[in-house]
Amino acid sequence: MKVKKWEYQQRQTPNKQSLHYKNFMKQYRAYNRFIDRWGRLPMQSNTSNRRPIAERRLYQWASQIKHKMQQRKLPQWKYNLCTNISGWEWNRQSNVWTQRYLECKAYIEQYGHTPTQIRPERFPKRIYKGKWISPIDAQLHTLSIWVMCQRRKFNKGELLPQRLNALIDIDFDFEPNMGPRDGNINGMDTMENINRIVEENDYV
Question: What residues does each domain of the chain span?
Fold first, then answer.
């Protein structure tokens, strides 16, 4: 399935005389001043710590910006400015996503295709008490779930633009692949090693 990279269609150059631009930059500068003063990002209130209203407003402003980004309605100039904010993350799970992305990239480079969806019930000999016997299989299963989530987000139009483009760069296949119904899937542990683990741990 051939997928085109995301390109911003929003106007690239803002009207710096507009009230919209001036209001955005006012909040942008206030957000940066808060970070410079307190050494952290603005946070929302919780049951144990009620934040000042000014901080809560900055947090809400940032949340609205990120929501626009998820909807792919954020102009490029706003994206560029916010990306340069110290400590700014478009998604709290960015570190986890990057780790899975690198695992997927390595898998594609080694096997020439995107990881196949793996259902544990199709491999009963590799399962003991509802868990994978081999850590290798467990890790590959986690990666296959991540792949499935990226495809689902893509089909719903919810995949962040920079993530979409990153996946295209590694030849990620957005079409689901159930894989073979029996036998090993590329990257799964060998049955010889699984049998050894079973013997060493007295699995019955």
Answer: 19-83, 94-201
At 127, the amino acid letter reads I
At residue 64 the predicted structure's pLDDT band, cuts being 50, 70 and 90, is very high
**Which tokens in the block code for residue 128?**
């003991």
Q: Enumerate residues 6+ apart whose C-beta is below 8 A from 67.
A: none
User: What's residue 187's pLDDT?
Assistant: 92
Report the distance separating Cα 3 and Cα 171, nearest Å: 9
DSSP state of 131: E
Is 114 buried (19+), middle (13-18) or exposed (0-12) by CB count in 10 A?
buried
Of 115, 137, 124, 135, the closest CA to residue 188 belongs to 137
Q: Which amino acid is at 45?
A: S
176 φ, ψ to 5°?
-65, 145
In whole angstroms, give the CA distance from residue 35 to residue 85.
Answer: 9
pTM for the full model?
0.64
Of 30-34, 81-85, 185-189, give the range with the top mean pLDDT: 30-34
Output the DSSP codes for 53-93: HHHHHHHHHHHHHHHHHHTT---HHHHHHHHTSTT--S-TT
pLDDT at 79: 87
